[in-house]
């Protein structure tokens, strides 16, 4: 047996923490959800207050906050204070794991004030934003203008800084690349307190190309200028069910956005968005989306589906209905489509609250969803934290397009993608998104 065919680890027996995780919903529903809703509401009020301010006022506040960061860095003694690190707590980040690097000696710099949209430049088609601006915040500002970031990550809480220093990918990445590929300038404070603006053609070009995926190790990001694109009011979404082997599912996914004649520069042949959902090793649904005007969406016979309402079925479950009823097309309001996976945190919602997808819960309590990932992490304790490290996988993988089939087979074999007794088929649901670099 080759190394690739050998299991990565032996099967484990259930222990007490497995049962604790199973009933964790009690803590989530009575503690985490109410606090999450309160935080979301207060954050929204803060964002609205910021939007009421003029761009000039926001810029003035930004400049003052930059001076504070520079002053803080000037106080650092490199020989005693350790490496520079943001003061943001590890559990606040959107991700199911707590990182440990901040437990070591480090020099904290507070960037919590950097969460404003500084400017929307319609002439240059640029949005200038601070690093803690999240996707829900910026789409709420831009979509009413019929503008949007070229790459909008699905979850509301994902921030600009996280998508740049990590990597951001979306269903439009086959046209525009990763999130960082749409950034035209970075404003960075270096460890010595120097503020620089890095673009691809100035004296800091090496920094410009090094910032993406750097995990914040090269400097403190305080602002970014990101490309905007014109959009329309609706997304025309076509659902296509696919049944076959994992190789068949991979081929159907590739066919969704890569024309077989190779004419991928033809706007008529390449959709604006592509997404694939795989529910079992033999069943999947491929979705292609194109921007559509309000007039087109409201034509007689067209179906409009406002997926953003709290009582609506979760999106990945709604897409799964195509396996029974066949191909269909519907129109979804653009902003609601962007954040289609927010309410259920993809399929994580069912792992956290096994009954939260039921119609009675959605109608009565769906407006409380989703729980904030940061609160979930803050209340999990070391035992559950270690459980997730060992047993839970939430992982993006970038592979060449022709390797998608092999990658799916490897994931199915090595990551134990199988039906969970309490969670329907949610463990088998994978999402496929592809970037321009895969061609």
UniProtKB/TrEMBL annotation:
Task: Indicate yes or no for the key word Lipid biosynthesis.
Answer: no
- PROSITE patterns per the record? FAD_PCMH
Spell out where the chain crosses the membrane: 23-46
Cite the Pfam families for this sequence.
FAD_binding_4 (PF01565)
What is one Gene Ontology biological process annotated in the Swiss-Prot or TrEMBL record?
Answer: steroid metabolic process
Q: Enumerate the subcellular locations listed in this protein's record, separating them with semicolons.
A: Membrane
The segment(s) forming the FAD-binding PCMH-type domain are: 45-231
Molecular function (GO) terms for this protein are: Delta24-sterol reductase activity; FAD binding
Among InterPro entries, the record links this protein to: Diminuto-like, FAD-bd_PCMH, FAD-bd_PCMH-like_sf, FAD-bd_PCMH_sub2, Oxid_FAD_bind_N
Spell out the GO cellular component terms annotated for this protein, sorted alphabetically and separated by semicolons. Answer: cytoplasm; membrane
Membrane topology, from the record = Single-pass membrane protein
Q: Which UniProt keywords apply?
A: Membrane, Oxidoreductase, Transmembrane, Transmembrane helix
Enzyme class per UniProt: oxidoreductase
What's the EC number here? Answer: 1.3.1.72
What PANTHER family does this protein's entry cite?
24-DEHYDROCHOLESTEROL REDUCTASE, DELTA(24)-STEROL REDUCTASE
The name under which this protein is listed is Delta(24)-sterol reductase
Q: Organism, per UniProt? A: Glycine soja
């Amino acid at each position: 047996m080759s190394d690739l065919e050998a299991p990565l680890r032996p099967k484990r027996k259930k222990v007490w923490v497995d049962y604790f995780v199973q009933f964790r919903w009690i803590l989530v529903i009575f503690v985490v959800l109410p606090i999450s809703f309160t935080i979301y509401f207060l954050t929204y009020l803060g964002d609205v207050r910021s939007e009421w301010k003029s761009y000039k006022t926001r810029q003035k506040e930004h400049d003052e906050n930059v001076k504070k960061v520079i002053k803080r860095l000037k106080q650092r003694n490199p020989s005693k204070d350790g490496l520079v690190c943001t003061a943001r707590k590890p559990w606040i980040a959107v991700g199911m794991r707590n990182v440990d690097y901040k437990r070591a000696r480090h020099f904290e710099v507070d960037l919590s004030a950097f969460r404003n949209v500084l400017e929307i430049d319609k002439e240059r088609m640029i949005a200038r934003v601070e690093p803690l601006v999240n996707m829900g915040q910026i789409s709420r500002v831009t979509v009413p203008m019929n503008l949007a970031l070229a790459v909008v990550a699905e979850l509301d809480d994902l921030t600009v800084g996280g998508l740049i220093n990590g990597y951001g990918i979306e269903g439009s990445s086959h046209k525009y690349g990763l999130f960082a590929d749409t950034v035209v300038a970075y404003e960075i404070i270096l460890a010595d307190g120097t503020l620089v603006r890095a673009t691809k053609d100035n004296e800091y070009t090496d920094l410009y190309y090094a910032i993406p995926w750097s995990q914040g190790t090269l400097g403190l990001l305080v602002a970014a200028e990101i490309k905007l694109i014109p959009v329309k009011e609706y997304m025309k979404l076509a659902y296509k069910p696919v049944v076959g082997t994992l190789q068949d599912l991979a081929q159907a996914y590739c066919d969704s956005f890569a024309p077989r004649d190779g004419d991928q520069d033809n706007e008529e042949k390449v959709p604006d968005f592509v997404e694939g959902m795989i529910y079992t090793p033999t069943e999947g649904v491929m979705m292609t989306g194109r921007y559509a005007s309000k007039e087109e969406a409201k034509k007689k016979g067209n179906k409009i589906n406002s997926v953003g309402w709290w009582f609506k079925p979760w999106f990945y479950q709604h897409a799964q209905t195509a396996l029974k009823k066949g191909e269909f097309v519907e129109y979804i309001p653009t902003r609601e489509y962007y954040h289609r996976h927010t309410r259920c945190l993809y399929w994580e919602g069912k792992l956290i609250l096994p009954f939260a997808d039921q119609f009675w819960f959605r109608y009565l309590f769906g407006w409380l969803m989703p729980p904030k990932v940061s609160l979930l992490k803050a209340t999990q304790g070391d035992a559950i934290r270690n459980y997730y490290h060992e047993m839970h996988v939430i992982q993006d993988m970038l592979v060449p397009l022709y390797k998608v089939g092999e990658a799916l087979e490897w994931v199915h074999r090595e990551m134990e993608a199988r039906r969970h007794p309490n969670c329907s088929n949610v463990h088998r649901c994978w999402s496929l998104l592809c970037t321009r670099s895969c061609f």
